[in-house]
């Protein structure tokens, strides 16, 4: 099997981490070489804890993560990356860093209202109250994937977790990433 990066994009609380964590568990059980890169964890690590959430800081964070994903995937690791990555331009740059042949974009599409309801950390509430600036979906945009377009769309407000996971695994099989 060759390495690849499955890059999950979507609004905060759209289901990126939940789906990717379950896919990760399944792939680990089947003894695939797989790694998880998650926005919350990376932001607390030495890799990116020096960055804020301006457009330029988001770009730096995602470029750093994309470079790590590139190194892993070119060494036959399946990388499951979960990052809001809200701008088409930055997603295109991520694809170019990783390499179009190893980059697969999954959009966890979910209405803002549902994401707000799912928010267990209270981040949307803080953003709506003006306590957090540049929060995607509130005072910073999330651009629907068009450049590059999503390879797979998960409607996480309409389908079960199991259905979303099944769709990701089926996509990976079709692309020859897993057996």
Short overview:
The chain has 179 residues and is of the alpha/beta class. It has helices at 16-29, 39-44, 55-74, 88-98, 112-118, 123-128, 161-174, and strands spanning 4-9, 34-38, 78-82, 103-109, 152-155.
Please characterize this protein's 3D structure:
The chain is globular. The chain has helices spanning 16-29, 39-44, 55-74, 88-98, 112-118, 123-128, 161-174; strands at residues 4-9, 34-38, 78-82, 103-109, 152-155. It is of the alpha/beta class. It is built from seven helices and five strands. It has a single domain, classed as P-loop containing nucleotide triphosphate hydrolases (Rossmann fold, 3-Layer(aba) Sandwich), CATH 3.40.50.300. The mean pLDDT is 94.
> Strand arrangement, largest sheet?
2-3-1-4-5
Our measurement of the CA-to-CA distance between the termini, rounded to an integer number of angstroms, reads: 8 Å
How would you describe the shape?
globular
Roughly how much helix do the residues carry, as a percent range?
40-55%
What number of domains? 1
User: Any low-confidence stretches, pLDDT <50, length ≥5?
Assistant: none
Please state the structural category.
alpha/beta
The helix-strand sequence is: EHEHHEHEHHEH
CATH-assigned homologous superfamily: P-loop containing nucleotide triphosphate hydrolases
Q: What oligomeric state do the depicted chains represent?
A: single chain
CATH architecture verdict: 3-Layer(aba) Sandwich
Radius of gyration: 15 Å
CATH hierarchy, class: Alpha Beta
Report the CATH topology name: Rossmann fold
**Average pLDDT value?**
94
Strand content: 15-25%
Summed up, the helix count is: 7
Tell me about the biggest sheet?
5 strands, parallel
How many E-type strands? 5
């Amino acid at each position: 099997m060759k390495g690849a990066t499955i890059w999950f994009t979507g609004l905060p609380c759209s289901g990126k981490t939940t789906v990717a964590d379950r896919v990760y568990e399944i792939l680990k059980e089947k003894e695939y070489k797989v790694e998880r890169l998650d926005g919350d964890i990376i932001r607390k690590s030495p890799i990116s804890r020096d960055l804020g959430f301006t457009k330029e800081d988001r770009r730096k964070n995602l470029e750093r993560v994309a470079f790590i994903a590139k190194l892993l995937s070119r060494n036959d690791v399946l990388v499951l990356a979960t990052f809001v990555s809200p701008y088409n331009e930055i997603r295109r740059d991520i694809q170019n860093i990783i390499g179009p042949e190893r980059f697969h974009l999954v959009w966890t599409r979910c209405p803002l209202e549902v994401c707000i309801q799912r928010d267990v950390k209270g981040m949307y509430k803080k953003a709506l109250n003006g306590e957090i600036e540049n929060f995607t979906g509130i005072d910073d945009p999330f651009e629907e994937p068009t450049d590059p377009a999503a390879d797979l769309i998960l409607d996480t407000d309409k389908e079960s977790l199991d259905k979303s996971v099944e769709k990701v695994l089926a996509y990976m099989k079709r692309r020859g990433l897993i057996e």
